[in-house]
Amino acid sequence: MFFVEVILPLSLAKTFTYRVSESEFNFIKKGMRIAVPFGKSKIYTALAIETHQNEPTLYEAKEIHQILDEKPIATAIQIEHWQWISTYYMCAIGDVFRNAFPSALLLESESVITSTNNADFSVKDLSDDEYLVYEALQKQNVLKIGDIVAIVNKKNVLPLLQKLIDTGVLVLQQEMKEAYKPKLIRYVRLHSQFDSNEGLSILLEMLKNAQKQKEIVLAYFQLSATEKKPITVKKLIEFSQSNTAVVKALIDKQIFEEYYVQHDRVNFSGKINDSALQLSQAQESAFTAIQNSFSEKTVSLLHGVTSSGKTEIYIKLIEEYLSQEKQILFLLPEIAITVQLVNRLQLYFGEKVAVFHSKYSNNERVEVWKQVLHNAEKAQIVIGARSALFLPFSDLGLIIVDEEHEQTFKQSDPAPRYHARDAAVVLANLHQAKVLLGSATPSLESYYNTQLNKYGLVTLSERYNNVRMPEVLLVDLKDKYFRKKMTGHFSDVLLEQITETLSLGEQVILFQNRRGYAPIIECMTCGHVPDCPQCDVSLTFHKFKSQLRCHYCGYSMAKPSHCHQCSSVDLNTKGFGTEQIELEIKNLFPSAKIGRMDQDTTRGKFGYEKIIDEFKNREIDILVGTQMLAKGLDFDNVNLVGIMNADTMLYHPDFRAFERSYQMMTQVAGRAGRFKKQGKVVIQTYNPNHNTIQQVTNHHYLGMYKEQLYDRQIYKYPPYFKLIKLTLKHRDFDKLKEGAMWLYQVMSQTLPMPVLGPEEPAISRIRNEYIRTIMIKIPQNFALGETKKTIQKILNSFDAVAVYRSIKVTTNVDFY
Ligand code: ADP
Ligand code: ZN
Ligand code: ZN
After folding, report:
1. Residues near ligand 2 ion, CB 5 Å cutoff
2. What torsion do the CA atoms of 411, 415, 417, 420 make, to the nearest 10 degrees?
3. Which of 10, 449, 637, 671 has the most CB atoms around it within 10 Å of its CB?
4. Which fold has domain 471-517+576-710?
5. What's the 54 CA to ligand 1 centre distance in angstroms?
6. Is the pLDDT of residue 235 over 50?
7. CATH fold for the domain made of 2-107
């Protein structure tokens, strides 16, 4: 008898055994997909990991439906890496598999299929079965795979559908297809030959008999004197009340030069940069230091201040590995910066750069998957968010983790709850590759690892071009309010700085780490604050939509006209968010163009791209935003950053609050003055003497590091202790309370280490489920694997208690 062992894309810890024929047995290789029946009537795409002849003892092995691949589409290293993730992060191997594979490669009976209607194919080329499916989809918009099984009256429809998806006849539903095309803006400038006084008189001579052209040129002078920024053709025509023909004539005469600004000033044409990148001396020595460190260690941390030119060092390093024909993985925390980075890397590496993240369509993701599998030149450099870690690399040489301190590298829901930075180090070891972590504000964990000599450390402490670090002005809010120097949420100092910056034609970023208009609406008569009916949080007020919204579950209601408790109409807002800042600044600077970047304005498909583009093209003067602004964006004309209120971050109830506040403020501040001159940062706070604020002001990373590390040791937190957080959820409050207590007691009696809880978290109910947490703190150098096994055993016995079985427990290892 012959069997194949497979991983199912379900939250199941075990692998499953299916029966195969002898020829199938000989054909199947590790990493091939196999359609298998599971449960009563479902079909899933599973992954073969082994063939063997051991009949399972606990159940009777079913037969497979069909082998879906001719060759493996996952690699042995990949599967080994998943197994590590599953063990380390205490989750089902099936969870990792499902998370790793693009869903288009994982057809199952519940997948929803729809017709593309625009594929380039001829109906007569379809087989009978293919035609049946095609025809059914002309009548009905979408079909589940289960429906198709009935239509063609065959069980093995997955290969058929896969083929139709591959040829573009069908797609999985909910896909995005368009690729983003940056908007090109047309600018003009005076040809450099007219720069001098002498040139000017030549110019006037040339235009003696062309009155209309002369008018435009004069308008150009006037505009450049007042605006102090590049002049678009559109603006010039509006201002001079002329037309494009006249502008064109001036361009033909070589009086004006036209140029386009796309994303990046480095490149105006969209072509690959042929001039090689010149590293500064400081960059060069950092580059050498990284290479030296790689000769001894797998991981190196590049601690380079904001705008020190880390990206350029990455580019040099990538060149090295490309020349050895290795694959390179570039991990980024956020889609927003991916956009800018892709453009920057494409300037150097052109077609070799591929992008992999969730905003891309399934088909595009499958394409990258296959290119990576075959080590195709087209995807030699892969840029992506954390999930790119799961691609089938065949010859990986280097992983770069940029902004390594970002918490978005940790997946919190659903399982696998892995940290991409740490999982990258493991993946690199499997490939004998190297890892470069980069940040201006490294995580305590990574910096600590350099101090233990586990990771190399390379420091770059000056900005590129020798621009000085931004000057930080602290504003004491208490004093300003007392002396009536506030206009809305703006201090006189901040307003003066904004006025000055705008008058120089430079741009401003205003940071407020909270979206919406105001956090809450409060009744001035009885103090009632409307809460979410499903979660225990107050609703956030959004003025533009005149709504109250829950940021946890998305619940919304129209803004009430009176208090629901006492019917008073005297309602007031408390606190403030980006929306309110945007409105205030619009009133204060009516002629400035204001933009806003937060979750509410970047929701659309290309939300980020649009706002970043507009800001980069200087169509926006003042950009208001949340922490999205703190993530490695590079704008060359921003010279002022205002942090509206530093205190909400500082007093977040979280052991990382000070570290995060330092990182966030330093990163936002780092957007100022990146190109030519020193930038300014205004921090408004009630606590100007707070250590963290002082550390930000003085750019004193090591001060922050040492202080926080000391606290972590005293209070038993990472990096000294590993945290495992158990979260229990149930709709029944009493049952949850009891179950959490049971689990806590067994854990704390069994484990020789601190076990805390069961705690009611700050937000103790979401979507009508009550929540309790238990925190286990495993001392450094304690047998981690054994402890996890013990914890898993206790969790299994908890699950075996009939009354508690319905309580959902999630395990979060290295909780962030
Ligand atoms: P970081 O990632 O360290 O914050 P960047 O790599 O974004 O810094 O560099 C800051 C700015 O300086 C960018 O606009 C970049 O183009 C420019 N820059 C840095 N190094 C160089 C270089 N060697 N040659 C030209 N421009 C550079
Ligand atoms: Zn009231
Ligand atoms: Zn809610």
Report:
1. 523, 525-526, 528, 563, 565-566, 568
2. -60
3. 671
4. Rossmann fold (3.40.50)
5. 59
6. yes
7. GIY-YIG endonuclease (3.40.1440)
Convert 598-630 into a string of H (helix), E (strand) and C (coil).
CCCCCCCCCHHHHHHHHHHCCCCCEEEECHHHH
Q: Are 631 and 403 in contact (CB under 8 A)?
A: yes
Task: Give the residue, by CA position, lying nearest to ligand 1 atom 6.
Answer: 309
The preferred substitution site among 436, 612, 634 for testing ligand 1, maximizing ligand atoms within 8 Å of CB, is 634
Delimiting residues of CATH 3.40.1440.60 domain(s) in the chain: 2-107
Work out the end-to-end distance of the chain between its first and last CA atoms, rounded to an integer number of angstroms: 48
Q: Give the ligand at the shortest distance from the Cα of 539.
A: 3
- In whole angstroms, what is the distance from residue 292 CA to residue 284 CA? 12
109-177: what fold?
Answer: Arc Repressor Mutant, subunit A (1.10.10)
Res 106: pLDDT: 82
Provide CATH code, domain 721-813: 3.30.70.600
pLDDT score for 336: 62
Is pLDDT of 178 > 50?
no
Tokens (6 digits) for 79: 């599967």
561 Cα: distance to centroid of ligand 2 (angstroms): 11
Summarize pLDDT for 545-600 with one digit per residue, the tens: 888 888 777 788 898 889 888 888 888 887 778 888 999 999 999 999 999 988 77
What are the pLDDT digits (tens) for 692-706? 999 999 999 999 999
Tell me how crowded residue 305 is: count the other CB atoms within 10 A of its CB: 20
Q: Is 216 exposed, middle or buried (0-12, 13-18, 19+ CB in 10 A)?
A: buried
For residues 521 and 574, what is the distance between their CA atoms, to the nearest angstrom?
Answer: 6
CB atoms within 10 A of CB 432: 9
| Structural contact between residues 773 and 727, judged by C-beta atoms closer than 8 angstroms | yes
Q: How confident is the model at residue 441 (pLDDT cuts 50, 70, 90)?
A: very high
The whole-number average pLDDT for the span 211-221 is 88
Query: Which residue CA neighbors atom 20 of ligand 1 most closely?
Result: 309
Q: Cα of 560 to ligand 2 centre, how many Å? A: 11
Supply the residue whose CA is at minimum distance from atom 27 of ligand 1.
309
Q: What 3-state class would DSSP assign to 573?
A: strand
User: Which pLDDT score, from 0 to 100, does residue 179 have?
Assistant: 39
Structural tokens at position 352: 């070799």
91 is in an annotated binding site: no
Asked whether residue 262 carries a pLDDT value surpassing 60, the answer given is no
CATH 3.40.50.300 range(s) for the chain read 281-463, 471-517+576-710
Nearest protein CA to atom 1 of ligand 1, as residue: 307
Q: Is 566 marked as a binding-site residue?
A: yes
> Does 535 belong to an annotated binding site?
yes
Tokens of 156: 């093995």
Cα 442 to Cα 113: distance, rounded to the nearest angstrom: 44
Are 625 and 510 contacting, i.e. CB atoms less than 8 angstroms apart? Answer: yes
Task: Work out the average pLDDT over 667-678.
Answer: 87
